[in-house]
User: Which sequence fits this backbone?
């Protein structure tokens, strides 16, 4: 997802799932694949840190994308996420994404 309107519609009408360093907002998607949007504010850190967090989120999503149903997902980074390594991000987001897949299959 790239457009502000898409992000806002998901954030205003989606279901929320929290982890320690991330907030996942999701809703059923219109397409056949899962789509991802990320939000990392300047409070997290400078551009290098924000981009590192976004890359780690995208990589984790890429690894579990096959298991996810068609949904639109926005991942919002919270305070402290800038200090996480890519492995830490994956270990925190993977169970949450697996939980989303299980909830959607019901």
Assistant:
């Amino acid at each position: 997802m790239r457009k502000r309107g898409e992000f806002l519609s998901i954030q205003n009408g989606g279901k929320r799932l929290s982890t320690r360093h991330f907030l996942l907002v999701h809703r059923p998607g219109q397409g056949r694949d899962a789509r991802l949007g990320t939000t990392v504010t300047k409070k997290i850190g400078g551009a290098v840190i924000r981009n590192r967090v976004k890359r780690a989120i995208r990589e984790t999503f890429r690894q579990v994308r096959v298991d996810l149903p068609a949904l639109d997902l926005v991942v919002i980074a919270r305070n402290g996420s800038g200090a996480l390594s890519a492995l830490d991000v994956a270990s925190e987001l993977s169970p949450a994404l697996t939980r989303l897949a299980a909830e959607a299959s019901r």
In short: The beta strands are 15-18, 22-28, 35-39, 71-77. The first helix runs from residue 4 to 13. Residues 30 and 59 are 23 Å apart (CA to CA). The mean pLDDT is 95.
